[in-house]
Amino acid sequence: MCVNNTNEPRVAVGILTAPAVEIDFRGSYRRSDGEVVSGPVRFEGLTEEMTFEPETADAVFEVKDVVIGVDFHWERRENQQFAGALTLRPAPGGIIVINRLGVESYLRSVISSEMSATSSPELLRAHAVISRSWLLAQMSKREAVAGTEYNACTVTPGEIVRWQDREDHTEFDVCADDHCQRYQGVTRQTTAAVAEAIDATAGVVLTDPETGRLADARFSKCCGGVFELFENCWEPVHHSYLTVRSDAPDSLIYPDLRYEPRARAWIEASPEAFCNTSDSRVLSQVLNNYDQETADFFRWTVRYTQQELSDLVRERTGIDFGTITDLEAVERGTSGRIVRLRITGTRRSMIIGKELEIRHALSTSHLKSSAFVVDRDGDDFVLRGAGWGHGVGLCQIGAAVMAEKGYKWQDILGHYFPGAELIKKY
Fold this sequence. Notes:
This protein has 426 residues and is of the alpha+beta class. The chain has helices at residues 103-114, 121-145, 192-200, 260-267, 280-286, 306-317, 355-361, 396-404, 409-416; strands at 10-18, 20-31, 36-44, 50-54, 60-68, 76-82, 85-91, 94-102, 153-156, 159-162, 174-175, 204-207, 219-220, 299-304, 324-332, 338-345, 349-353, 372-377, 380-386, 394-395, 421-424.
C-alpha cells in the first residue's frame, strides 16, 4: 500500500534551465492566477514566477528535451513526465523548471532512475534509505547555510582546489541529474517492487550517532575495492560513518592506498571485492540501459597522445599548460583516488583537485574515477584506473552483489555506513 503521512516533507527538484520550455499538461492544472490549463504549452520570455498545481491525483506534466547525464559520456535528451506541482521561475539562463512533490513520491523515481527497477528487494530497500537520508540531510544543510558565505573553491597561483555539491543550487533543494541524485519523474516508475521498497522503509533514515544529525549518505557506481573518505572529495569535514574499508566480507583488512607503491599495486591487480563482478544479471540490476554502455568499471585503461592530452586539458580547464610533460599524484585518498594532481607542461605547472575536478580535466566528459596511475608509452600517456565514481559511502554494484549473496538491507547499510543508526524520522 502507499504511505500517506502528513509529516512527509516536500522537496523542490530542479529539472532544467532553458531559454524556452515546452510543457504538455496531461490533466488539469490550476495556475497561480487561478486559470486552469491543460495540453501542450510553450513558455518563453517569462518575467514572473508561475506555479501549476494538479487538479487530480493522476495528472502529470511532460517536459520536452530534458538533458540527462550532463557532461558525462552518456549525455542525452529525453521527454520526461512528472507528478506533483510545477513551478516556472525566470532566471538569467531563461526559465528554471522546478517540480515540487512529497519526498516518498520523489524517491520512487530516484530508485528507478539510479538503477533498474527490477533490482532485488534488499538492494532497493537499502538504496531507498540512503537516498532518503542524503536528500533530507541536504535539505537540512541548505537551511543551515542559507545567508552564509559558503566557499567550495580555493585558488592560488599554483593550485586550484574545487568540489561540487548541492550548495551549487540556490533556487531549489536538489537537481534532477547525477550531480545530486538521478530523478527522471514517473518515466522510471516501472515496478511494484520499487513502491514496496519505499513503503517498507517509509521515513527511515540513517543518522550519525555522535551528533544525532542525518547521515550524509553518499553513493557511487563502483568503489573499485576500497572506500574513500568524504573529506577527500568534498568539504574538509570527517563523518565517522564514512570510513575506510575494503568492499569485501573481511572489510576491516584493507591496504592503505594513500602511498604511491601500494596504490599502483592495488590498481594494477584484480583484488577480491563485492564490486569485482562481471555477472551481467547482477549488473543489470544496477545499470540502466545507458549505464550498461560502460563495461570496464572495476578496472579500466585510457590512452592519450601527448598532443591529445595537452589539447584536452587546455579545453577542459581553460588553462594553457603548453605541451604536457607530466601528471603526478601529489596526494591520494584512502581508496587510491587522487585528491591533488600536479599537471606539468612546457608553459606552466599547477596542482588541481579534488577528485571530480581531476576527472573533469582529463576527459571529454568525466574520467571514471581519479583512482589511476600514469605510465608513458613513447609520447603516449596511459592512465590505468579503478572504480567508477567517487567511492564514498554505498557502492551500488557491490551492494547488488551483497543482496544477491543473501545479505539483508540492514547488513548492506552496516557494511557501507558502519556505526550509523537507523531511525524512523516520520
